[in-house]
Design a protein that fits this description.
By secondary structure, the chain is of the alpha+beta class. It has one domain. About 55% of the residues lie in helices and about 15% in strands. It has 4 helices and 3 strands; from the N terminus they run αβαββαα. A hairpin with a 2-residue loop joins strand 2 and strand 3. Helix 2 crosses helix 3.
């Protein structure tokens, strides 16, 4: 006897595949945007840097959800809105952070120097 698979099940399969893909990319996100607090950035500066980094992904043709994942983190006993980042997401956030912070400016300069030396 042949079985009939309703179309809805195929849609459910695509949901399962999308969930698998999301889990794969989330496993590639070892960084947290809140780590930048330790470099002296204010939360508002981090939010702006992440927004710009996400825009760079979008306009550059990448899928932001592969590099940025909104999460909540515990920090100093408080729950805060945060963002998990891939290495690329972290680098884009650092490139878009304010150079008024010495460690950020030094990192930005090192990246550009390495790029120009190639």
């Amino acid at each position: 006897m042949k079985s009939i698979v309703p179309f809805r099940l195929i849609e459910d399969l695509s949901d399962v595949l999308e969930a698998f893909e999301d889990q794969y990319y989330q496993a590639q996100m070892p960084y947290l945007a809140s780590d930048l607090l330790e470099l002296g950035l204010r939360p508002s500066e981090i939010i702006e840097a992440v927004r710009r980094a996400i825009a760079a992904c979008e306009y550059g043709g990448l899928r932001p959800k592969h590099h940025f994942l909104p999460v909540y983190s515990a920090r100093k006993g408080m729950m805060i809105r945060d963002c998990k980042l891939t290495q690329l997401g972290y680098a884009l956030t650092m490139l878009n952070a304010s150079p008024h912070h010495p460690q950020i400016a030094q990192w930005q300069l090192r990246v550009l120097q390495r790029y120009l030396e190639r």
